[in-house]
Write a structure and sequence with these properties.
By secondary structure, the protein is an alpha/beta fold. It is 32% helix and 25% strand.
Amino acid sequence: MIEAEILLPTADGTMSAFTTQPDEGGPFPAVFFYMDAPGKREELHDMARRIATTGYHVVLPNLYYRTTPDFVLDFEGDSNRDEMYELMYGLSNRMVIDDTAALFAHIDAHPDVVSDGPVGCLGYCMSGPFALSVAAAFPDRIRAAASLYGVRLAVDADDSPHRAFGAVTGEIYIACAETDSYAPPEMVAEVEAAIVSSGVNGRVEWYPGTHHGFAFPTRGSVFDKAAAETHWSRLHALFDRNLRNR
């Protein structure tokens, strides 16, 4: 595998990102991996590697770069949770769409990425709405987008992701935990209705017996290995059928 920590210029500063890809067999389709609220960290790097090993160039940016270059939640002592919430609420769908332009500039100049090829994206929790918003903002490039126990997918705002499903031309996949106060059933029902009314190629899948964060191995009792493996099979299938041989 080839890995790198890179710096990308954006309209608001310099954004760091982790990239990973196989060391042979390219060029590869690209996948944008948007971090969850606890920050860009080794746990996410490992998850990016898991996607990359199957034949992708994965880019995992630090979305908090406007405020801090290296925030990571203190999972043990919980000393900086308030800072995490401040950083999280300081982001918007529009900001991440703007940042994604820098990700496209990176992959379009990279010799190991399929030239002008289809791109996938995914986001957990905080970034679930970001992945879906990016799919709507770049319909000519984003061919597959996944939200994994994403929050704020249907809210009373003009930029709510569910309002833009009609602009998406790729496939979307939305995974939901059975018990999740951040994504209650009534919100998910609104998302499902928007999928039907918009005609977008997408679906919602409930994961029985799971809680928010079930795919992260470091989340203790919340981690559900069987559900996590199912979510990986869904992601691999989503990307493979939409990003290869097009």
